[in-house]
Amino acid sequence: MTTEPEHDSFHPGRHSDTYEALARRCETGAEQLKYEAEHAAEILPTRAGGDRLDPQQWAAQKLTAAQAALDYAAGLRAEAAEHGPLARMEPDRLAQADKVALAANLGGILIDGRGPAERQAQSDSVFDENHRKAWEAGEYPAQIKAAEIEATGRFTHVAETIDGIEQEAFWQLGGTADESTDQRQTQHTDNDSDEF
């Protein structure tokens, strides 16, 4: 029994795993990122912790992510010209393109879930034995996702410590893994935070 392939929600009847469909998703996300950059001063106050961020720096990150998504979309369109506009992508290529499109549509970031996954896999719980085996084999979903993200060459890995507290790492669309900002330290004063 075969199942119906996933369809492009923007254009009913079209497949979502074509170069053209993924390029459109990247472009849609880029437009949203540009909008957020242009309206940073209005948007940031409505977000949790937005009062701690520099609107200009935040907008610059959004524009960098938007440009990375547009560049990636252009590359997908070039591949579409080579393979045909409705050519469907190979699974590995599709997974990579999906990560760029997903990040573009999620504010330019993807959470790196390897930290919590490794902690779960390394716990002493009898219930985590399958997790441990998958982690040791490099087959844990968070490890696979990280490999797909790294393969795109379009993300910077960010690991921050804020006020001495290690934050969950994430991938920032724009830049490369070689530009990783791991171990970025940020200190806030009493003036920077709300008091409870």
Element order: H for helix, E for strand: HHHHEHHHEEEEE
The structural domain count equals 1
The main pleated sheet reads as:
3 strands, antiparallel
Radius of gyration: 19 Å
Description:
- The longest helix is centred in the middle third of the chain and has 29 residues, at 55-83.
- The protein has helices spanning 19-38, 40-43, 55-83, 91-104, 114-121, 129-136, 141-152; strands spanning 109-111, 155-158, 160-162, 165-166, 170-173, 184-186.
- A hairpin with a 2-residue loop joins strand 3 (160-162) and strand 4 (165-166).
- The protein is flat, with a radius of gyration of 19 Å.
- It has a three-stranded antiparallel beta sheet with strand order 1-5-2.
- Helix 1 packs parallel to helix 4 (91-104) and helix 4 crosses helix 7 (141-152).
- It has one domain (19-187).
- It has seven helices and six strands, in the order ααααβαααβββββ.
- The chain is mostly helical.
- The N and C termini lie far apart (58 Å).
Structural features:
6 strands; 3-stranded antiparallel β-sheet; disordered C terminus; 196 residues; 3-stranded mixed β-sheet; mainly alpha; 7 helices; disordered N terminus
